[in-house]
Write a structure and sequence with these properties.
Layout lengths: L3 E9 L6 E7 L7 E9 L7 E9 L4 E5 L2 E2 L10 E10 L3 E11 L4 E4 L6 E2 L7 E9 L5 E9 L1
Antiparallel strand pairs: 1-6, 1-12, 2-7, 2-11, 3-9, 3-10, 3-12, 4-8, 4-11, 5-7
Length: 151
């Protein structure tokens, strides 16, 4: 049976995007799959546009470290490496954009993966994915994001 794990992060975006919100770090022991991504603004809403993306990474960056949490408390700890979230002092090294969407800041967005179309993390140390704000038309909202992955 597939084991699901959740990772949640939030940060203030604006100023000089791109701004990373949360990243997952792969390891050599597992090829995890991203199966759901959600994000939304948790501060006073603004009538502005925001461009969000899920991208591949080759480094984790530096931020508050965390371990993904098991959705089923009977599951063992995630095999993924420690991720990063919230205020990044060093941004991850980013590569290809795997999923992106522009939307109104007042919107909350949820993407669930259709069958057999999960975004798979390579079984390579420090490679992973990051949820980031690519650009914002104005303002400095706090964006909260969630990435759910399977192992």
């Amino acid at each position: 049976m597939t084991r699901l794990y959740s990772s949640v992060g939030k940060t203030v975006v604006g100023g000089t995007p791109p701004t990373s919100i949360i990243s997952l770090t792969g390891t050599t022991t597992v090829r995890a799959s991203v199966v759901e991504v959600a994000w939304g603004q948790i501060t006073a809403p603004s009538d502005q546009a925001i461009d969000m993306a899920l991208k591949r990474t080759t480094t984790t960056g530096t931020a508050t470290a965390f371990s993904p949490k098991a959705n089923d408390p009977a599951n063992p700890a995630s095999l993924l490496g420690t991720g990063a979230r919230s205020i990044f002092t060093v941004e991850p090294s980013k590569g290809d954009e795997l999923y992106g969407i522009g939307l109104h800041q007042r919107s909350t967005y949820r993407w669930t993966v259709p069958d057999n179309r999960a975004i798979v993390l390579p079984a390579t140390a420090n490679y992973g994915v990051v949820l980031e704000c690519i650009s914002i038309s104005a303002g400095t909202p706090t964006i909260k994001g969630t990435i759910i992955h399977s192992e």
